[in-house]
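B., you asked whether I could sanity-check this one before it goes into the benchmark set. Here's the sequence:
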Amino acid sequence: MAMNKLHTNATLADPEDLASAEPLYYRIAQDLLRSIRNGDYPVGSMLPPEVRLCEHYGASRFTVREALRWLTDHNLIDRRRGAGTTVKNAEPAPSFIYRLSSLSEMLKYPEDTYRENLVSTMVQVDPRLSDYIGSPVGHEWYRIGGLRRSDRSDLPICWSDIYILPEFAPLVAGETTSNEPVFQRIERERGVVIANAQIRIFASSIEGELARLLRVADGSPALTFVRRYLDESGRNFESTVTIHPEKRFEYALELHRDGAGGLQT
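And here's what the prediction gave me:
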């Protein structure tokens, strides 16, 4: 691969060598990561300014910033206004970061992740499950349990238990993998509309068989998300319990103050 020197002894790929089906920002990010791994930009050193990177890659400032954001999201660099970009680590962090642009995105995972179903069965609500999903003890729900995965890592992102009313079970019965949220399928196939969503987030731990499936030590800390999806009549037609091992997933939410003094995404 041909190389062009940018400054000191650091080398970056010739832009013509970055031709690929991948987005340009991602190719730039991967080239910068290669230079970091090779020691061209060791931990503690500074990356070139945005303007220099734009000139070198023949890319817009927006594209370069997207590349730098990818490196930031993977805990490789630290960017500070007026102080430049510092290399923090030589290897990406294993966490999966999901940046939210709307509150509706809190209800689902990115489309480049998928669910690997390992459990599909009818269950009766016990007191513990009743506390999670808000259903009376003894009622029946259809449970889909499985691992959320991404092609970015061999490690599962989380474990998800999805509980839906039995009338919707035929929509997902026998399914082994899917990247479509179950609630979206229910909306599309049965005309159910989400009128209200309730979200609880709390610290928890991962024990026993679940620890083995998530490939963490028994008793490892986790973050649990409980989501309830209510239709226009107030009926809870789906609830999910999702358990995230530490350092595997992160929500990044940015709020802006609107004209009325409130906050919006």
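One thing to flag: The first strand starts at residue 3 and ends at 7. Otherwise nothing jumped out at me.
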